[in-house]
Amino acid sequence: MTDRTALSLDQEAPARPSRSLWATAFLRLKRNTLAMISLAVLIFYILAGIIGPEITNHHYAEVYPEFVKVPASLEGYPKSDEIPALAESALARARLDLGQITVDGGTIRVEASSSREIDPRVTRYLDRSDLFANSRIAETSADGQSVVMEADVERLHFYFGTDANGRDLLARTLISVRVSLMIGALATSVALLIGVLYGATAGFVGGRVDNFMMRVVDVLYSLPFIFFVILLVVFFGRNVVLMFIAVGAVEWLDMARIVRGQTLSLKNREFVQAAEALGVRSAGILRRHIIPNTLGPVIIYMTLLIPKVILLESFLSFLGLGVQEPLTSLGVLISEGAKNMRGDAYMLFFPAATLTLLLFALNFLGDGLRDALDPKDR
């Protein structure tokens, strides 16, 4: 009776599918609210960097001489009370006596007179300005010495304000996010490639080879990093892509040490010994068994290396050794904002807040991945 009951219970119990290591880690990551919020913020930054500069109304290098250092505002520029003065400035060289100037919605009316007949082409002075378009003569007196000109007012929106050269700060912030993320991903990829291969080889081969390879790492650690930066700038010039590929080639030292330590603990495991007994070559063991099992700590360190590289880029750009004009990065914008901090604090606030939020998201995501992939918590 008991055996039949147990058998029936075994038959009725549904088979639970086994989860892989990465599926389990993802479920643990989903329970971490802060890490998931950080992941959403990071995805938003990536999308903003990719499509943001393309959908804004301004190019990041376009200069508006009439709007230098205008503060951030949801209202379009020029403001209604500023339009008459700007129209007078645009018509200053027309040699006309200006009368009443009125603004009706998006249209401006300018009354003008002269001691001689007015050439209808005088409206070109308004068209030459970036503020007015479709200028025309609405009314003309019988003697042609008085006219009423009309023009459409081109309203521009600067939601983050403009910089010291009259460029839209929002467009420049979006392009700087793209540049900073690209540099962080590029340098981190190079460091990942070199560090993983170097550390896994040193840890798996062991012996004198391991000792020699790690002494090379110690020697590179002892050299001042800024010395390498100066050499890279001299050698690669102002090519920012090549320079940060070289920066990634220097940042691999920590990655190599982490992977070596993981490899030393993995090479004596049963599955590695079984592969050796079956005659699998060392390169195959590294590629199929050692490196895949070190990806957990590597991914965690990678999420911490990206903000480190972004901060490094910001530091170099702050010193004038990084991204050059007209291209920009968050470090360049922060450097420019620091120079104008007293009178125009918005120029520092927006890029600094953007960089701070990005670094927080990357660090919180790294902490979440560490908790999800930590073998002690499984």
TrEMBL record:
Residues 177-366 form the ABC transmembrane type-1 domain. GO terms for biological process: peptide transport; protein transport; transmembrane transport. This is Oligopeptide transport system permease protein OppC. Belongs to the binding-protein-dependent transport system permease family. OppBC subfamily. It comes from Halovulum marinum. The keyword Heme does not apply. It is a multi-pass membrane protein. InterPro entries: BP-dependent_transpt_permease, MetI-like, MetI-like_sf, OppC_N. CDD domains: TM_PBP2. The lineage of its organism: Bacteria, Pseudomonadati, Pseudomonadota, Alphaproteobacteria, Rhodobacterales. Keywords: Cell inner membrane, Cell membrane, Membrane, Peptide transport, Protein transport, Transmembrane, Transmembrane helix, Transport. PROSITE patterns: ABC_TM1. The chain crosses the membrane at residues 34-52, 179-205, 225-250, 290-310, 346-366. It is found in: Cell inner membrane; Cell membrane. GO terms for cellular component: plasma membrane.
